[in-house]
Amino acid sequence: MNLKRFIPILIVVCVLGTCLVGISAMGQKEPKGGTQLLREEMTALEQAFGAIIDAVIFDNMGLIKPAIPPLRKAREKVEETISTGQKIKLPKNRGRFEEFVMLDDKFHEEFKALEKAAEAGEKKVVKDQTHKLFDACVVCHEKFRK
Ligand code: HEC
Known about the structure:
Order of helices and strands: HHHHH
Largest sheet: none
Bound molecules: heme C
Helix content: over 70%
Number of helices: 5
Distance between the termini: 67 Å
Number of strands: 0
Shape: elongated
Strand content: under 5%
Mean pLDDT: 90
């Protein structure tokens, strides 16, 4: 057989192969980036915070504990990302990432204080922490969210 006749076939096979590899790569899920993980944490935080506000206004501390686990899970993923040195792409003031991390750490410290107070049934502390946390949402959003 004439080798020359094979060359066009070879080219077609190569082109098709490349296309197929490309298509299958598109179908694969990319690992989640830090930005997406942060948004997931924020959504979980918003939900947990809703429960916390209910707990305060309806004077029912028992609402807080069950609202925490989804937030904790989402939070852990963000912490992991940051601890591996990956910077999350912030919508605003991206260059002030260290300040963002500081605010974030402080926020979660205050959040832990709220959790502890809720478990101990210390209503006044829960109420004060709720105010503090709410202010912290606004401060961080003003700085880092568009
Ligand atoms: C340490 C900083 C920080 C704190 C504290 C913070 N946020 Fe955020 N939040 C952000 C940033 C940054 C974004 C924007 C993320 C993006 O769009 O890339 C955001 C986005 C959000 C979003 C939108 C998520 C989405 O899918 O686009 C919600 C909802 C939200 N935050 C709720 C809250 C609530 C509620 C609190 C307080 C209880 C809070 N955040 C506290 C930094 C913070």
